[in-house]
Amino acid sequence: MTFNKLGLSPEVLQAISEAGYTKPTPIQQQAIPFVLMGRDVLGCAQTGTGKTASFALPMIDILASGRVKARMPRSLILTPTRELAIQISENFELYGKYNKLSMALLIGGVSFDDQLSKLDRGVDILIATPGRLLDHFERGGLLLNNIKILVIDEADRMMDMGFIPDVEKIVALLSPIRMTLFFSATMPKEIRRLADKFLINPKEITVTPSTTTAETVAQFLAIVEGIPRIKREALRQIIKTENVENAIIFCNRKRDADILAKSLCKYKFRAAALHGNMSQPARLETLENFKTGNTQFLVASDVAARGLDIPKVSHVFNFDVPTHAEDYVHRIGRTGRAGREGRAFTISTPDDSKYLDAVYNFIGKSINIIQITGLNEPNMSSSIKTRIAKNKKSLNKKLDTQRKIKKEKKDTVHENRKSTLGEKEKNKPVIGMGKHTPAFLLRPVALDGTFKKRGN
Ligand code: AMP
C-alpha cells in the first residue's frame, strides 16, 4: 500500500514524500479514506503509530477549500498537554507546507495577546489544551460555532488529567454539524461513553498496542540497593561504560527528576529535568536544548515525556522501574526507533520486584542482568532474584511450548502432504539428471542474473 492510493492531494503527497514517509502506517491506511469521506472516526491507537498524520493529512485536504473568518476557527484539535499540542502543530506545518492554511496554538504559559491577535486574523486549524481554550472563550476572544472538524486526541490522558468536564463543556459549544475524530490509547468505560456521546456512526479503528519491545533495543537490568545515592552512583557507572550520544532518563516522580538532573550536572554531565511542574517556556527551552544536543541527558517524568517525538535517542535509562508495565514499553520505545539500534537500562531495587514482575509478564521476555563494579549486591532477602529466576523459567517454558506447537504443526502439515501423494507417487523414481550435472549449471552467476564467463 502506498500513500497514492489513499485519495490525498498532490500537495500533501509531495509534503509527505519530502518528510521521508514511503508507506502509510496501519492507522493511516484505515483512517485517511474515511476522514476524506467525512465520516466520524474512533481510533484506538497510541503515540508512535502515526496517528497524528492519520487525521492531519486528510484535514489539510478538507480545509484546503473554504475561507477563514475572524475569531471563528474552522477546525479544533484538543490535546491534553502543551507539548503534544506543539508537536501536532509541527506536524501540520510539515504536512501542510504546500497549502496556505493558518494555524493557532492556544496553550497555557504563552501570552494571551499573541494568541488573540492570531484568532483575530482567522484560523483554519486551532490546536488547544482544554483549559486555555475555555479561558479564551469566556473572555469572548473566540467563537466555536464554525468548527467543522473536531479532533479529540489522547482522550484517556485527558481523563487521567481531569480534563473531561472541560472537554464536555467545549463539545457542547460546538455545532452538531461537524465531523469528529476521537483518539485514545485505551478504551475504558468512561471513554467509550464519551465516544458514544460525541460521535455519530463512527468508523472504528483499532491499532494493536505494542506490548512487544523493539528487537533493535538491547535491554539490561541492574539490581542495586534502594538508596537514592546508590542508584545515582549506579547510573553514573553505567553511563561511563556506555557510548551515550543522548539519553532520556525516566523517573517515577517529578521531584526525583529534579534531584537527579541537579546531581548529574554536579558530576559535569549535561543534564536537564523535564516535568509537569516547570513553566511552559522552561519546558520548551529544555526540549529544544535536548533536540539540538546542548543537553545530553533529559531527566523526565512519564507524563512530560509521553507523546514527545525525539527521533534520535541512543539510550534510555529507567532510574525507577515504572509502576505501570506498559510505560516500560513506551519508555524504551524512545530508543531503537525506525530500525536504529538502541540500548535501555533499568535500575531496580529489591523493593521493585512487584513492578518488575509486571514488566516481565507484559513484555514476555527476559532482560539481561548486569553487575555494576564497586557496588555491593543488595540484600536479596525480598527474593527478587528468585522471582527473576522464576520469571526466566516460566518464560523459557512458554517459549518451549510455543516451539513444540510450531514443530507439531509443521510435522502435521508435512504428514498431510505426504499422505496426499499416493503410494504410487511415493514409489516413483525421481527423474533427474542422474550423477552428471551439466557444466553450465556450475558456472557462477553474477548478481544481475547473467552468467559470468568461465575464468572470471
Ligand atoms: P505519531 O504516532 O503521530 O506520534 O507519530 C510517530 C512518529 O512517526 C512521528 O515521528 C512521525 O513523524 C512518524 N510517522 C508518521 N507517519 C509515518 C509514516 N507513514 N512513515 C514514517 N514515519 C511516520
SSE layout and pairings?
Blueprint: H1 10-18, H2 26-37, E1 41-44, H3 51-63, E2 75-78, H4 82-95, E3 103-106, H5 112-121, E4 125-128, H6 130-138, E5 149-152, H7 155-160, H8 164-173, E6 179-184, H9 189-198, E7 203-206, E8 217-223, H10 228-241, E9 247-251, H11 254-266, E10 271-274, H12 280-292, E11 297-301, H13 302-305, E12 315-318, H14 325-332, E13 342-348, H15 353-363, E14 368-370, H16 384-420, H17 423-427, H18 439-442
Parallel strand pairs: 1-6, 1-7, 2-4, 2-5, 3-4, 5-6, 8-13, 8-14, 9-11, 9-12, 10-11, 12-13
Helix pairs in contact: 2-3, 3-4, 14-15, 15-16
The protein binds adenosine monophosphate (AMP).
The CATH class of the largest domain is identified as Alpha Beta
**Biggest β-sheet description:** 7 strands, parallel
What is the CATH homologous superfamily assignment of the largest domain? Answer: P-loop containing nucleotide triphosphate hydrolases
Radius of gyration: 28 Å
* Strand segment count: 14
Bound molecules: adenosine monophosphate
Tell me what the CATH architecture of the largest domain is. 3-Layer(aba) Sandwich
> Count the helices. How many?
18
Oligomer state of the chains in this structure:
single chain
CATH topology of the largest domain: Rossmann fold
Q: Average pLDDT value?
A: 84
Ends: how far apart?
A: 41 Å
- Give the overall form: globular
Uncertain stretches of 5 or more adjacent residues: 420-426, 429-435, 449-456
